[in-house]
Amino acid sequence: MSAVTPARPAVDPEMAAPARPGHQTGSGTGQTPFPASAPARGAAARAVEQPIDGPEGFRRPRPRPAPRRSPNPAVSVIVPTRNEARNLEIVLPAIAAVRPAVHEVIVVDGNSTDNTVAVARRTLPWARVITQTRKGKGNAMACGFSAATGDVLVMFDADGSADPNEIPAFVKALVDGADFAKGSRFCKGGGSDDITLLRKSGNAGLNTVANRLFGTKYSDLCYGYNAFWADLLPQLELPDPAAPKPEDGSMIWGDGFEIETVLNCRVAAADLTITEVPSVERERMFGETNLRTFADGTRVLRTLMAEHRRMEQRRKASGYSR
């Protein structure tokens, strides 16, 4: 099964890069900024320059150049939002200030009622702002992943709890050989200003269940700051953002808050290389959290069991035996 290895200590080199993505500079010794995506040529280039509008404002640049793995990947930061206007005024400039510069920031809005979209466009004009096609954090993330044009996809919460300055450490873990860089508040160098004792205890119990079911060594299952290579998307088999909403009003599996656990399970089930990256979680800046300790803990446990059944069924169908 997939082993989880700790990331090497992050180095904080001197950096000099522009505020806008797509340009390259670098003054630190051995420092190489994240470039824009590899130049597209001919018909592919023209297609990328002419995005196709999907349902509910979901813009999908199709076709796009295939994502590639390189020492200098283009990095797409996906920020799902719902009523996070005040936080975005701080979070978006902080992401833009990261050095080396990221390739793009994609804000995926979940029909906010607090002017989130207008604030995002005003605060960071070059950010791409799209509207998710259904509801739920999972659908928002899938919409952002599908719209992204980078080589690396970074999952980034809009509430201010994640530190943008950690993005280079996640990218370094991937460049050093990981398929999936898993943020952890509980490995050496990580921490949290926000987690309660009850949530910490629950997380530890869920870690134990996940590690036994999937053969992993996760130290922080319930943390949403992660990054992975974009070429893994087909293996993850997330719900298609273009699929219609269920007529009965229910949610498609993977569209909700279970998305982070689903990703962790599917990466492990696919025997991909996982590296944990130390991360310090900060307190939410404005607004109220959507976390519900017992309800969300139960949801994660159900997700673990459902994804384990899915893994076993697929292995049985393929004739795989452990």
Automatic annotation (TrEMBL):
Family from the record: Belongs to the glycosyltransferase 2 family.
Taxonomic superkingdom: Bacteria
Positions with biased composition (Low complexity): 35-47
Pfam family, one: Glycos_transf_2
Protein name as it appears in the record: Glycosyltransferase family 2 protein
Domain Glycosyltransferase 2-like span(s) in chain numbering: 76-231
Matching SUPFAM superfamilies: Nucleotide-diphospho-sugar transferases
Biased composition (Polar residues): 24-34
Alphabetical list of InterPro entries matching this protein: Glyco_trans_2-like (IPR001173), Glycosyltransferase_2 (IPR050256), Nucleotide-diphossugar_trans (IPR029044)
Region spans: Disordered: 1-77
Signal sequence extent: none
